[in-house]
Prior knowledge:
Number of strands: 10
Largest sheet: 4 strands, antiparallel
Number of helices: 6
Radius of gyration: 20 Å
Helix content: 10-25%
CATH topology of the largest domain: Helicase, Ruva Protein, domain 3
Shape: elongated
Number of domains: 2
Oligomer: single chain
Low-confidence stretches: none
Strand content: 15-25%
CATH class of the largest domain: Mainly Alpha
Amino acid sequence: MPELPEVQTTVNGLNRTVKGRRIIDVWTDYESKLKMHRGSVKEPKFFINFKKQIKNQKIIKAERRAKNILIHLSNNKTILAHMKMTGYFFYNPPKDAPFVHLDFTLDNGKHLAFSDMRKFAKVTLVDTNKLGESIHLNHLGPEPLDRSFTFKIFKERLMKKPKGKVKTVLMDQTLISGIGNIYSDEILWRANVHPLSTPRTIPEKNLKMMYKAVRETLKKGIDFGGDSMSDYRNINGERGEFQDHHRAYRKTGKKCSKSKCKGIIKRLVVGTRSAHFCPIHQKLYK
């Protein structure tokens, strides 16, 4: 699933390509009668109203909140998209672009398509001035790359689940926004912390290393255009490069690349998610 760096890379791409453009039309072949898809473009009745409200509206700008893409329109409505497992936006795609299930026609004759192989993504419409209180965003924790996200706040958020497994706690979107499976592995590798450690037992020194690793790793993910080990592609349909810089994620059986460390990367399951770690330099605090 795309995490903070992939979503931010998409938002940056949207602001480069479609900011200021007007939406002329929109098409979809999403069609679902499932209760879970009500209130999204997958619901036929919702899509009819969605189309009416976004046609002829100007795209003011795109922003990110956690793993959500927010496309603000001139009528004070916001298109909210969560890419889930396989979704991504593609500007001016070729006609044979795969798995396109939503397509916006723009006033310059080009298209903004949404590719979604497994059809898990969510796209809906929210009043811009009510975004923060909407069911899509009102549960989210603070943004880890904001200037206001200090070490004190980081520690306070982790200690809301002091007995939890730190891998799972880092990925809890109600505590800290935007971190998922890939970046949590990379953060813990850099901070020398085992994924099964509990926040209350992790030494202050390592908590500070984790805080630094959170900010540095997420920024590095953005710098490399996101991670495309799976399906993620940027606005031009191109792969990101962060997967070429993994130190832990999906490195099972590989020698640890930490200087002077003789460990071999192992994999275990934490909750329902895989965790990749070095059993030598990543210490278990319980």
